[in-house]
Every structure is written in C-alpha cells, then in structure tokens.
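Trying the structure run again after the queue cleared.
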Amino acid sequence: MLRSLMSTLIYSAILFTVQSAVAQDMPLTQILIDGEGWEEVARGYKFTEGPAVDGQGNVFFTDIPNNRIHKIDVASGKVSVFVENTGGANGLMFGPDGRLYGCQNGKKRIVAWDTAGKESTIAEEVESNDLVVTREGGVYFTDFGNKRVWYVSPKGEKRVVDEGITRPNGIILWPDQGTLVVTDFAGPYLWVFRVEADGSLSSKQPYYMPRLPQGKKESGADGMTVDSAGRLYAATFVGLQVFDPTGRFSGVILKPQPAFLSNVVFGGPKLDTLYVTCADKVYLRKTKVTGIRYFDTRPPGK
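Done. Tokens:
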C-alpha cells in the first residue's frame, strides 16, 4: 500500500511539473493549415496499418491481409512493395539501427527488416499488435488478446511489463521517452506509464480521455503518434483525436473517409505531414507542426 501511494505521489509531481511548464491551450488551429485537407496517396488495399517513417521521411505501411509492406517515396510520391510474405505484419517502426521493426503476429514473432528487406527475428513465441522502438533499441509491444504489454531489451530479453488493459492496442512514447502511452481499444481511456531505467513500467494511470461515439463505451483507439511539442494524436472511431502534453483534449481532426481509421505518423522530409491508414487507402495532410523520429531524438540537454 505504501509503495503504491508513493508511486502515485511521484507521478502526480511529474504531471504537475508538466502542467506548469506547458501551455494548456493548444487548439487545432495551431496544427491545421487553412485550405489544406486530406489528400489520397494510395488505394486498392484490403486493410492498411502500421505507418512508419524512415530517416529520409519516406513512409512505410502494411497491407495485412495481402502480407505486404509498401513504401511511399516522398520525393516522387510513388508507392512500391518493400517486402512480401510478411507473416501478417501489423505495427511498424524504424529503430536506431536503421531497420524496420514489425509485429509479425501470423508467426508469433517480433522481427526487423534491413534496407534490402532481409528479415531477422527479435523475439519469438509472442502475440503482438503494435510496437514502439526506443533510441537504445528496446521494443515495447502490445498483446491485444492477452491484455499484456511486453518489453524486449536491446539484448533480446523479453518480459511482460503490464497486464490488465482490456484491449491494449496502439503504443507510443513521449518525445523524451520517459513516458509510455497505450491505447485501450475497448475502453474510455489511454493509459500512461513511467519508463524505468531497466525498461520496466511504473505509475500506471488513465491520462487521456478520448471522445466516444454517441451511445458507445469503446473509443476504438488504435495507433498513435506525437509531435515535437508533445501533442498526442490517436486514431479512434470518431477521428484523429489530439491532446496536449497535460492530457487536455485539443480537438478531433475528421477522418478522410467514413471507414475505420487505424493509425497515423508524421512523414515527409521535414516531418510536417500527417499520414493516416484508413481501411483500403492511405492519406496525407500537411500541417504547421512537425513530428519526431525516436531513433534520432536525444534526451533534454544532450
């Protein structure tokens, strides 16, 4: 009981510091550009997911039923196949080693592909949905069906670091990588954790409260991204919901089409363009803000 209380007090102090240091009013007008809307990038897929950005701003995404990963070349706008026979790859993210990490749930593995598309195994005998890769090369991933969050250390040691979220789905880190966020597809909250030095998680709290569809108790919260100011963007049933660093709701960016919105990432050479996967299509939208790449983000003051 005492340990739990101390953990809560410490976390509350962290949140108070963040709230004191960051402006609370961060409306969508600071993000959206007048006259700019969603533009279709690619179509004709069965179900798109897992957008990830590389060091040049190119965006990769999965077409899960067709077992393919596609690449959007941001210089030309052309879409090509990067990898075939992906084993049902879902969530993707580039790591500090330049490889593309992915949840290969069809084969119960976490894997990584090099620039030539050669596959390596990171962890085996695990179920997975989405992942985030730290600057040190550690991997956090969600286990949707078993209500778990896992961690794989840079040395390849895997362990469960949280249990109990109803349907843990999307997963992302704050820009300083000291806080981890996990969406609950079947619940009304997005959960946050403090990341400890050994990769373990502490101070679990319901921090963000997304808007729900009328008459529903599930947010349908899926993939997420963050921008360089610390705003969080979450794909949900009602659209792309945005929150400021204090957890305050900033607004909803409407979906580009009525279909399910699964995930989001910032891409392009300047990381100032939102890319979303929405059922059979991928869309982009230019913004006033910029995203981050976790593999080239440094701790404050370093």
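The helical segments are 2-21. Worth checking whether this holds up in the mutant runs.
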